[in-house]
Amino acid sequence: ELHKQDKWRNTVIGISSRCDEPPWARELLEKFEIDDGEGGSFQLGEAFDTVHITKENKVKHFMKIADYAGVGFDRMIFFDNEYGNCQDVSQLGVTVGYCPGGVDEEIWEMCQAAFPAPAGEIVGESRW
Known about the structure:
The chain is built from four helices and seven strands; from the N terminus they run E-H-E-E-E-H-E-H-E-H-E. The mean pLDDT is 91. The chain starts with 13 loop residues before the first strand and ends in a 5-residue tail after the last strand. The protein is α/β, with parallel strands linked by helices. The protein has helices at residues 22-31, 58-69, 83-90, 105-114, and strands spanning 14-18, 33-35, 41-43, 50-54, 77-80, 95-98, 122-123. Helix 3 links the parallel strand 5 (77-80) and strand 6. The protein has a three-stranded parallel β-sheet with strand order 5-6-7, sandwiched between helices.
């Protein structure tokens, strides 16, 4: 949807991952092939304009993403399966979707409907 619909044309798509082996995580972005819905495919890493995979916490990642994109936190949406990350990032004023089962259509639509959510609010936490 993000790559096909005009309404998302000027959207910056970033990834934030905190892990013990950042080089391995970056390598995985090159190994996953995504069906483009038109008979072709692309590497998962190609879906992102900015990639932040480090051992740093999510708040630091989001400070870098905001700087890269040139937008305020209130203009960002974040999805995560770890509740602690959701709590930290929501305090910045980012619209946050809690999705321990992964991003699905329901949480995607809930976050769009809640955008921009008040600082500290976590969309979807009642689902779990």
